[in-house]
Structures are given as C-alpha cells and as structure tokens.
Amino acid sequence: MQALRILLAVLFSWLVAVSGAHADPLATQDKAKQTWQLLDYLAVDYGGAVRDGKVQSASEYEEMKEFAATAVQQLAALPSTPALPELKRQATALSELIAAKADAKAVADSAHSLAAALVKAYPFPLSPSTPPDLARAKVLFEANCAACHGATGRGDGPLGAKLTPPPIAFTDRDRARSRSVLALYQVISQGVAGTSMPSFATLSDEDRWALAFFAGTLSHDDAMRARGEQSWGRDATAKAVFPDLAAAATLTEAALSERMPPDTARDLTAYVRSHPEVTITANGTGGVGLARARLQESLAAARAGDQANATRLALSAYLDGFEPLEPALRARNQALLTEVENSMLAYRGALASGKLEQADATAQKLDYLFAQVDTELGRIKPSR
Ligand code: HEC
Questions:
Q1: pTM for the structure as a whole
Q2: Residue 379, CB half-sphere, CA atoms under 13 Å: how many?
Q3: Are residues 96 and 149 in the same domain?
Q4: Domain of 259?
Q5: Who lines ligand 1 at CB under 6 A?
Q6: What are 274-309's pLDDT values in tens digits?
Q7: Percent of the chain scored above 90 by pLDDT?
Q8: From the alpha carbon of 179, which atom of ligand 1 is closest?
Q9: Cα(168) to centroid of ligand 1, in Å?
Q10: pLDDT by residue (tens digit) across 58-101?
Q11: ω before 25 within 30° of 0 (cis)?
Q12: Beta-carbon neighbour count of residue 151 at 10 Å?
C-alpha cells in the first residue's frame, strides 16, 4: 500500500507542476525529479510484488504496473529533446518487463538505468553543493524526527507507535541497502501523502540534505565505518567509485555490491555517508586541478629535456588526476571522456618520440579539455 500512496503523492505534485508555467526550466526539473523518484520506488518495491515469476501480492503488482505506465505518461509530458525518444523506449521496455513478471533484478536494473538516463537528459541537482553538516543533522533529527522515527531511527518513537502505517525504521538493513541518500532527501522534501510523514520543505535545502545523509547512516555501526575508512585509505578503486558528492548521494549499497564484495560495499557506504567530505578532498574537482597541474609539470620537464620525468608526470596526470573522475564523466559525457583519453595517449606518444612541438600543442588542447570536464561535472551539481 505504501506504493499506492507514493503514486498518489507523485501524481498530485505532478498535476500541480503541469498546471504551472510551460517549459519553465524549474518546472521541468521538478517533473524529472518526480519521475526519478517514481522509478526509484519501483526498483526498490518490485521485489515485494513479484518473486521467481510469481505474483506475491496482487495489489502491489497492480501498483507496479501503474507506476510504469505513469512513468511513460510523465515522460511524454517533458519538453522534447533528442534524448526523449530513447527514454520513452526504455520506459516501454520497463513496462513490458513488469507485464512479463520478470525477476526483481532485471526490473531494478531497467528502472535504475532509465532513471540515470533521465537525469542526464533533464539534469537536476543530485547532491548538496557543499558537504552536509552531520552534527547539525543529529540535532535536527532529535528535534523533528525522533518522536516518530525514534532517537536511534528504529521507527520506535513515542508518537510512532500509534501510527498506521508506522514510521520507517532507518535501522532496517534490508531496506537501507536499496535506499540512496537522494531518495531519502526526496521523501524529506516532499513527504508521503496519505501518511503522517510530513514534507519538511520549510527546512533549508542544506538541512534536508544533511538529514538525508544522517538517516542514511543509521543502519550502520562504528565497526563498519572503521573498516570502511581502512579500505578508503588503502584502495584506489574505493575512491574511484565515489568521485564526488553526487556519487555519495546517489549510489545504493545494493548497486555497489555488484562492483565489490557486499561487506566491503556496506562498510565503504557506512564510511562515506558519515564523512561525505572525503569525496571532495580525495577527488572532486581537485581531480581535474591535479591533472592540469601534473600536465604542466610534465611539459616543463619535457622542455628541460627530462623525458623520463615528463612521462612519469603525464601518467600521474592521468592516473591520479583524471582516472578517478572517469565513472562520473562516463555517465554524463562519453564523447568528452574518449577525447581526453585519446589526447592523453597522443601526448605520451609525442613525448616518447621526442616531438616537443606536438607535445606542446596536445598539452594545450588537453588543458582546454580538462576545463570542459570541470564544467561538465559541475553542470548537474547545484549552482547555488
Ligand atoms: C509524525 C510522524 C513523523 C515525523 C515527525 C517524521 N516522519 Fe518520516 N516517516 C513517517 C512515516 C509514517 C513514514 C512512512 C511513510 C510510508 O509508509 O510511506 C515516514 C517515512 C520517512 C522516510 C522514507 C524512508 C524510506 O526508506 O522510504 C524518510 C526518509 C523520513 N521519513 C525521514 C524523516 C525525517 C528526516 C524526519 C524529520 C525531519 C521525519 N521523517 C519526521 C512519519 C514521520
């Protein structure tokens, strides 16, 4: 039933948004956000409706079908762009999967990839512009949320006991695995119609993000965070999967578990959500800055006739500066990614064959490309 209420809430805000100004960029952002939220719920809740090709709950299954149909309709109402036909095709494919009672993973993957394509085509902020203040969130949580969700988020606050449906327990590991911080932020911002979960739109955007990160930490314990911190310090791929705040806000533990052992995914998530600022200091736009700096140093070494150092610095520009940004860039601008990779290759080639002029020209082009990467990665972060 939770699904139905969310559907109603989404439909309602959708009607409000549609009745507003046409092609207003903010209204478009809101529509895209709501469709994203719908797809996210579909990915999380479908597993409760169908298992092993069999319907577990007829009413929930009906809701899932309706969700997918609504996503198709909502896409049709977005302003037309070159990406829209492909999004519509994906939404139809998702409906067909659900009609065929496909397994939960196939549906979740399809819903998530459509959601990712949607945010790429109709960008909206995926994360706060600065790392959230979790100490402040704790205080806000005690004042605004603990009465229902409980002091430690177990869903057992004094007020919560009397509510139907009951407040969500943020400590529920199974549910938490499939909840992104962005999904929590959306619920906190919009509330859930037909339940006692109110909208906290009166709180500032920063506070809502901080609360979302905080709620996203409550299924973890200190031992997980400590192990996560160790793998963060030791393992370059850990930093590569969390290149920025947007990754910290959008990645679910379930999705991360497909790329590394589930326990490592859990521990890393535990650490990054409780210290989101590390994604900025480790990589962020610092990655581009580092890449540009190393490249200049490399060029200087080449001019001074130190070919070995020039090559080493060029590799460092690529591996330490640029590579951690690749997953984020691949999701947003594959063409630019390829161009940077090819130019880095050309640059190292020029160094190897001692063609200084060519190295110089390629380095200039790369510097320009890196600036574009900066813009591209900053593009769907909030510009406030
Ligand atoms: C009056 C009681 C009440 C208060 C106060 C309240 N909530 Fe809720 N909250 C609920 C209920 C009930 C639900 C479950 C709604 C449903 O069944 O869909 C919920 C659901 C949520 C969810 C969705 C979780 C998920 O996994 O889908 C989030 C996030 C959330 N609340 C955050 C907060 C935060 C943060 C605060 C404080 C700023 C807060 N809530 C205050 C009652 C409350």
A1: 0.67
A2: 17
A3: no
A4: 127-276
A5: 2, 5, 144-145, 147-149, 159, 163, 165, 167-168, 175, 179, 184, 187-188, 192, 195-197, 200, 211, 215
A6: 998 888 755 444 578 778 878 988 998 998 888 888
A7: 49
A8: 26
A9: 6
A10: 988 998 998 899 899 999 989 999 999 999 999 999 999 999 99
A11: no
A12: 13
174 CA distance to ligand 1 centroid (A)?
Answer: 17
| Site of tokens 């695995």 | 177
Query: Please, are residues 120 and 331 in contact by the beta-carbon 8 Å criterion?
Result: yes
CA 69 to chain centre: 24
Average pLDDT in the 235-262 region? Answer: 85
One domain, residues 144 and 111: no
Q: Are 48 and 57 in contact (CB under 8 A)?
A: yes
Length of the chain: 384
Q: Are residues 308 and 290 in the same domain?
A: yes
Residue bearing tokens 């969310």: 6
Residue 203 lies in a domain: yes
Whether the CB-CB separation of 127 and 206 falls below 8 Å is answered with: no
For residues 268 and 263, give the distance between their C-alpha atoms in angstroms, rounded to a whole number. 9
> Which of 259, 280, 256, 282 is closest to 269 using CA atoms?
256
Q: Give the model's pLDDT for residue 283.
A: 45
Please check whether residues 261 and 323 belong to one and the same domain.
Answer: no
Q: Is 104 among the domain residues? A: yes
* Model pLDDT for residues 149-205, shown as the tens digit of each residue: 999 999 999 999 889 999 999 999 999 998 999 999 989 998 988 899 999 999 999
In a shared domain, residues 262 and 131: yes
Both tokens assigned to 49: 């409706």
Residue matched to tokens 């177990």:
154
- Lookup: tokens for 66: 């309706």
Contact 373, 325 (CB under 8 A): yes
What is the spatial distance between Cα 229 and Cα 250, in angstroms, rounded to a whole number?
Answer: 19
Taking the C-alpha atoms of residue 244 and residue 241, their distance in angstroms, rounded to an integer, is: 9
Give residues with Cβ within 8 angstroms of 196, minimum separation 6. Answer: 148, 163, 167
CA Rg value for the chain? 23
